[in-house]
# Entry
Amino acid sequence: MRMRPKKTAKDLPPRMLRRTRAGAKGKQWVCYYYNARDENGKRVEIPLGTDLNEAKRKWAELEQTPAPVETGLMKIVFDRYERETLPTLSLGTQRVYSGYLKFLRRGFESAPADAITPQHIAQYRDTRAHGPDGIKRITQANREVTLLSTMFNYAREWGYTAKENPCKGIRKFKETPRDFYVDDEVWAAVYTLGDAILQDCMDLMYLTGQRRGDILKIRRSEIKNNELQVKPDKPGKRGKRLRIALLDEFRNLTELGAVINRIKSRPRSVLSSFYLLATDNGQPITEHMVVDRFEKARIEAADNALSQGNVDLAERIKKFQFRDIRAKAASDIESLKDASELLGHSEQQITRNVYRRKGQLVKPVR
# Structure
């Protein structure tokens, strides 16, 4: 039966309708429907949802025809991932992944998922790792390919493509783990120039072996029964709570316990602050505040070392990054097993290869 030309919604496929609905408070939204007939020939409208892209895909199923090409673009996959999946991750992970997505969009947003091949992935990997500015971004390239692989898995799950993940089998660049160890001289040079907030953060990060973001969100209520309970906020580790003892085997206060008592003993104008690390007026310490204080102390410490003619110390101080504190914690614990458990690693190999930087102590031949 020949269809009459559409008089409205001419931008939509045949038998696809657009309806504008109004809510109780006057808010309007657009819905899409499929103009169909029931078994008696009576016209019925089958709801297709409010998302135009998804509506076109449902329309294609009802028409028993391939979905329009534009419904399988990677832009649709990226948009849906950012809308539905990204918000479920930690705030730190959201920031990092948003940065990766910015570059992935530039490379693949306008491409249909079905048209992307392993060769395209490899070309993107090489371009990102060796950019035109001459700066190598090997780690960045590896992480972006990993996230892109995740995107394709979601695209297959959501029905945007039935092809095999083109990232499968793509080689990653070999990464060289950072090996800088913060010795006690470097530590003292920076620590002594920091204010109370920086010193508290450095002490907690070193003694707990946790990440900066994790120590900043420690609540006072998580200190109980002579234990500090921390919950690492990292993909793959969420939900794995650690209990760090504040008393040793002789029931004496540990150094961590003493630091926590020192922090809790400070008067605050706002006593209702939930967080252990907070300003005098009870406001939580932010990562930005910590980074600013650390950079200021590190620069001043390096300048002091240079003014005293200690060039070697100054160079070591300049290499010191706040994230190295976690590695110092892992390196200063004698037992690899204990270090791995404190850092919350499921595999000791990660602790050994990435965080143990002090070097193994061995005995001479004689």
